[in-house]
Structures are given as C-alpha cells and as structure tokens.
C-alpha cells in the first residue's frame, strides 16, 4: 500500500505537486485507480483518482478511518542536535518509523549546533511516516535554549534525563511507562553540564541509564524511542 500525504484533506482533495508527480509519473496511476491518503493526525482515507494530472492529482474520498496506527502511549524526545545534521535526520527517520509523538530540540552548554531547519526535518519525518505505513506525523518543535525549556516543561507522566554523571540511575527499561506519557531528555556529545543535570533534577526529572555502552547523541535518542515502543507492545 502506497501512502500519500495531504494534511488539509478535508478542504482539499488534491495531492501536492510532488505527490502528484510520484503518483502519475512514477507509479503510473490513472483515473479511477484507488489510492490511500493520510492527514498526519490519524486519518487514513481510501480514495479514487478523479483527475490524473502530474501536477495536480485530484481524488474523491471513498472511505475514512480515524485513529489509524495510534499508539497506546505518548513519547516526547527532547534532544540537543548534533553538529552534523545528517545524524539527527537519520535519528528522526528511524524514530518516526518506530513511533514517536513529539520531538523538541534544545541548546545546552556543550551543544555544537544552535539552529536547525525544521522544514527539512519535517520532510524527513513525512517520508518516514509514509514508508512505515503510519498516519501520525510527530510534532517537531523549533530549537530553544535550556533556560527557556526549563520555564515551561512538557506535560508527561514521567520526565527522565539520560546523562553520564556518576550516581544512581534507573534503567529506562525499568520505568513503568506502559500506556503512559514519557518525556526523555538527551544531551549533546559532551553530555549535560553538572549544573544542567541538577537543574533538571530540581524540576522533577528522574535520572536514567540507557545501558552500559556510551552512546552517540542520535543513537541514545533512538534507543530511548525503541525502548518505550518495546515496553508498550
């Protein structure tokens, strides 16, 4: 099943120029052929092509299914982006394939990147959503400073921070997060500063470990996402 993305499907029964070109030029679909369209918020639509144009492919909705592929939990990843943006794009792609609800980027003391192009990240996320047959596009937030992040924390049943400082830490897999919401905080390659760790703990974040190995930032984000998914199967 090939999925097409139209976030405003209730207003516009028409594919974007890029999606139209793929449907008509690449897949060679014709009028009266059926396609499946997702809206990014859980809607899956069985549709029929009414105008097979490679720049403006029009369709009519035949059947609607809401809540397609909805997860029984909510996962929010807050992460300091790496200097090499390709590594973050790779992580976003894999996290979306696994299942993630929200991604926030933060700028910490040891961060190597202070800006990030959200449209580019969203494009990667859309491709991964379609490829993995999902109907939910995660919310992707603009990068913010550590100070701003602490002033308004995301809502969640569990707030945890994965850091490398010595001290007692619970394995993430042992957090009772089944069918709950969790916000996981991942630092840059140089880890969080001791001050940042203490500030997060004072805000209610619990220290966690992702295992014995020392992981790259993007690997840590992916491991956290995968762990939450496994615990909710």
Describe the structure.
- By secondary structure, this protein is an alpha/beta fold.
- It folds into 2 domains: 3-65, Hypothetical PUA domain-like, domain 1 (Ribosomal Protein L25, Chain P), CATH 2.40.240.20; 74-231, Alpha/beta knot, CATH 3.40.1280.
- It contains 6 helices and 12 strands.
- The protein has helices at residues 17-26, 85-98, 118-131, 146-151, 194-202, 217-231, and strands at 3-5, 34-38, 44-51, 58-65, 74-79, 102-107, 139-140, 144-145, 158-162, 170-171, 181-186, 206-209.
- Strands 5, 6, 7, 8, 9, 10, 11 and 12 form an 8-stranded parallel sheet that branches. It has a 4-stranded mixed sheet with strand order 1-2-3-4.
- A hairpin with a 6-residue loop joins β3 (44-51) and β4.
- The radius of gyration is 20 Å and the shape is elongated.
- The model has no long low-confidence stretch (mean pLDDT 95).
Summarize the structure.
With 233 residues, this protein is an alpha/beta fold. It contains 6 helices and 12 strands.
CATH superfamily of the largest domain: SPOUT methyltransferase, trefoil knot domain
SSE succession: EHEEEEHEHEEHEEEHEH
Mean pLDDT: 95
Distance between the termini: 23 Å
Content of β-strand: 15-25%
Describe the global form. Answer: elongated
Which range best describes the helical content: under 10%, 10-25%, 25-40%, 40-55%, 55-70% or over 70%? 25-40%
* Count of runs of 4 or more consecutive helical residues: 6
Number-wise, the strands total: 12
CATH C-level label of the largest domain: Alpha Beta
Function: Specifically methylates the N3 position of the uracil ring of uridine 1498 (m3U1498) in 16S rRNA. Acts on the fully assembled 30S ribosomal subunit.
Pfam families: Methyltrans_RNA, PUA_4
Keywords: Cytoplasm, Methyltransferase, rRNA processing, S-adenosyl-L-methionine, Transferase
EC number: 2.1.1.193
């Amino acid at each position: 099943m090939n999925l097409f993305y139209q976030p405003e499907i209730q207003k516009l029964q028409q594919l974007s120029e890029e999606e139209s070109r793929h449907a008509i030029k690449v897949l060679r679909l014709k009028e009266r052929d059926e396609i499946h369209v997702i809206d990014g918020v859980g809607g899956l639509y069985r549709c029929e092509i009414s105008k097979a144009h490679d720049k403006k492919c029009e369709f009519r909705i035949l059947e609607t299914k809401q809540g397609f592929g909805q997860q029984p939990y909510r996962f929010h990843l807050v992460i300091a982006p790496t200097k090499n943006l390709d590594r973050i794009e790779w992580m976003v792609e894999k996290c979306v394939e696994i299942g993630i609800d929200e991604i926030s980027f933060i700028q910490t003391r040891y961060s190597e990147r202070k800006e990030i192009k959200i449209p580019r990240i969203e494009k990667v996320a859309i491709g991964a959503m379609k490829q993995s047959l999902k109907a939910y596009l995660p919310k992707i937030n603009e990068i913010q400073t550590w100070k701003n992040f602490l002033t308004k924390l995301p809502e969640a049943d569990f707030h945890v921070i994965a850091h490398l400082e010595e001290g007692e830490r619970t394995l993430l897999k042992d957090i009772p997060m089944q069918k709950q919401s969790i916000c996981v905080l991942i630092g840059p390659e140089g880890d969080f500063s001791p001050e940042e760790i203490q500030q997060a703990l004072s805000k209610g974040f619990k220290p966690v470990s992702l295992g014995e190995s020392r992981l790259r930032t993007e690997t840590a984000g992916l491991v956290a996402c995968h762990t939450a998914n496994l615990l909710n199967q």
